[in-house]
Amino acid sequence: AQSVTQPDIHITVSEGASLELRCNYSYGATPYLFWYVQSPGQGLQLLLKYFSGDTLVQGIKGFEAEFKRSQSSFNLRKPSVHWSDAAEYFCAVGAGTGTASKLTFGTGTRLQVTL
Amino acid sequence: ETGVTQSPTHLIKTRGQQVTLRCSSQSGHNTVSWYQQALGQGPQFIFQYYREEENGRGNFPPRFSGLQFPNYSSELNVNALELDDSALYLCASSRLGGGHTEAFFGQGTRLTVV
Which residue of B33, B41, B110 is in closest CB contact with A101? Predict the structure, then answer.
């Protein structure tokens, strides 16, 4: 069975600073990988996804992520954080074709942005 | 904002009662998945419905059941509610068939069991 680890429960960065949120997955084959963002009491918004091909994927709101098979990682990055980026971020893995909605999520990383 | 809508947004139930949550999928989508998100946790997959049949289930007991209707909307039913069922319930719609697609989530239903 697949699993996702987000090692950082809480991260604080200053507005304008760069950001990297870590995600490690466990799955025997090529996974489908996703990053979602959740504001308090809200649903999940898809930031970006990786299915195949180029290992550096671009998403919305200036986010990008890099798939590294050798490290089983899919870290999320943003070069300059805005105060509105404060939220909970979830990494998720889907196992195979047609399973983009049968997702295993990590426990999330809460991002705080200081002004 | 996605086209996935959930109702109600909040509700409070008593332990032992039954509850029904509803989800309307995004236009063009044929699959609905349900997730439970306890406070401070990531969402956990409950089950998925495709063509009105259950198409995969997570580690949840049979008192969690569902339906999908011909218009692809869906219901989640939970019987014999327990205090630990208190959570945000998220619905996600997607399209199976036709290549890779992602899931789009609704805003969720906050269930409190007292």
Answer: B33
